[in-house]
Write a structure and sequence with these properties.
The protein has 216 residues and is of the alpha/beta class. The chain has one domain (4-214): 4-Layer Sandwich (Metallo-beta-lactamase, Chain A), CATH 3.60.15.10. It has 4 helices and 14 strands. Helix 1 (127-132) links the parallel strand 9 and strand 10 (138-142). The longest helix is centred in the C-terminal third of the chain and has 11 residues, at 151-161. The model has no long low-confidence stretch (mean pLDDT 96).
């Protein structure tokens, strides 16, 4: 069983590597409100069509050309199963627009289920998403408010989804000031902070709603 290594690159961008394979969630593009990323990925998952989350060109690097997924559906690549579910975001909307498409991704690999909620603004998930993602090992959840879930909403949804590990996102370089602190307070304030998270399936089995802040 390979180690999985998770690193945070600001905003909602996380790189997940195991063996020779790299997945990136919400890579940051040039011209975004955060510095663009620059590394190679095999699979790029884009939740919201916005430069802060849709920089697939930036992860075509070092000989890697990513398989890009940018919407709902079922996908399979290199033995990894990915499901995308249609939801809503209110992040960085043009004037007069009430909501934008957001895709939640459920990624099954190495016997683990990773769920990235993207720039989700809605606390109620579609029924097909609830059915498909009942056993979550790692949940990436936005906590920043300002068009995505705020601290209280994120805490409520995390409790409902019962993941083994919760990784808050959308607090670094975006979101309301001190949104991470607000979320940790909602959750009771017992978190672990790491610069990179290295885990195996057997490590996760012992966890129950553990909050791990992966610092960029």
């Amino acid at each position: 069983m390979k180690n999985m290594v998770i690193t945070h690159h600001g905003g909602q961008c996380f790189k997940v590597t195991f063996g020779d394979t790299t997945i990136v969630f919400d890579p940051i593009a040039k011209g975004a409100s955060l510095p663009a990323v620059r590394f190679g990925a095999d699979i790029a998952l884009i939740s919201r069509n916005h430069p802060d989350m849709a920089g697939s060109e930036e992860v075509a690097f070092g000989g890697k050309e990513p398989f890009v997924i940018s919407g709902p559906g079922e996908y399979e690549k290199e033995g990894i199963t990915i499901q995308g579910f249609l939801t809503k975001s209110e992040y960085a909307l043009p004037k007069g627009q009430l909501s934008a498409v957001n895709t939640i991704y459920a990624v099954s690999l190495e016997g683990m289920m990773l769920v990235h909620l993207g720039a989700l603004s809605d606390t109620s998930l579609p029924p097909e998403a609830k059915e498909a993602i009942d056993e979550i090992d790692v949940l990436f959840i936005p906590v920043g408010g300002d068009g995505v879930l705020d601290a209280a909403q994120a805490s409520k949804l995390a409790t409902f989804l019962e993941p083994k590990i919760i990784i808050p996102m959308h607090w670094n370089g975006m979101g309301e000031p001190k949104s991470l602190e607000a979320f940790l307070k909602e959750e009771g304030g017992s978190e672990e902070r790491v610069e990179k998270l290295t885990i195996k399936k057997k490590d996760i089995a012992e966890k129950d709603g553990a909050i791990i802040v992966v610092t960029p």
